Amino acid sequence: MQQGGRSAPRNAAEAPVVEALSAEDAAGLENFDRIIAKDSRVEPRDWMPEAYRRSLVRQISQHAHSEIIGMQPEANWITRAPSLKRKSILMAKVQDEAGHGLYLYSAAETLGTTRDDMMDALVAGKARYSSIFNYPTVTWADMGAIGWMVDGAAICNQVPLCRASYGPYGRAMVRVCKEESFHQRQGFEILLELANGTPEQRAMAQDAVNRWYAPSLMMFGPPDDDSPNSKQSMAWNIKRFSNDELRSRFVGMLAEQVKVLGLELPDDQVRFDADTKKWEYGPLDWEEFKEVLAGRGPCNAQRLERRRSAHEDGAWVREAAAAYAEKQAAQHTAANAQKAAA
Ligand SMILES: [Fe+2]
Ligand SMILES: [Fe+2]
């Protein structure tokens, strides 16, 4: 791949359009291609194409932001949870989401981007996060529907990511998925209890399922023919299944579990196609999806404002932590110097 010797172009007209790689980069690319072909793992110190790095930073930071912004719709109900037990479960769940954000920011940092940069992009409104978190949580049953459907969709999406080719991302996902399955069960249990409660509670559960159904299906991203990054992401073994494939599996899971709840999905076109062996569903409003993604959803402004003020209010904590770390490091250095002198 290296230019030079007899094969070098004699004049500019013969020069290749794409600049040739240096010997080091060519060897790096060969190693990268070998890792991907073997379905093995790329680690932070391995050479990787810039486009692979950029694509991962985009995906992992968006994922991290979604976890952090996703704390808000549920935190909204911590003070109003109907019992102490529900309150403590919900608090643990919201706290888990903060942890997911931290694992993911750490994974993205191994690609050479700082957490400060990622956070600045988020609070400046320049970074994306999952559109689902821009919908309001208007009743207690929404905690059930979010756990069952939103965390359920997250599991469908994230279990295959445990095998993502980038090591730190895949490993972060393993722990995240374990916690997500607890989240989904707690949501299902909230709905089950409401569905077997008074007629009002049952209606509240059905209403929440009706409102969260379509947004949760849209969490898998646009249809395959309108998803520009998917193909490359699959070639790099980051993504394992297409958006539509995952969405169809998710619908199948909901269709079975909703029977146990004794509720209904607000979609009369849900059916299993025996020929294609896929679950089918009714049309989704992709215009609404684009609007919410563009920042014009019901709660976008509120979510971002809340995140921004929390970031500003927390500045003193970050400063104190940095000063403490500096002090510890200085003490450590002084102790080492003393040991060396002794
Ligand atoms: Fe999460
Ligand atoms: Fe979760």
Automatic annotation (TrEMBL):
SUPFAM superfamilies: Ferritin-like. GO terms for cellular component: cytosol. InterPro entries: Aromatic_CoA_ox/epox (IPR052703), Ferritin-like (IPR012347), Ferritin-like_SF (IPR009078), PaaA (IPR011881), PaaA_PaaC (IPR007814). GO terms for molecular function: phenylacetyl-CoA 1,2-epoxidase activity. It holds the Pfam family PaaA_PaaC. One of its GO terms (biological process) is phenylacetate catabolic process. Gene3D superfamilies: 1.20.1260.10. PANTHER family: 1,2-PHENYLACETYL-COA EPOXIDASE, SUBUNIT A, PHENYLACETIC ACID DEGRADATION PROTEIN PAA. This is 1,2-phenylacetyl-CoA epoxidase subunit A.
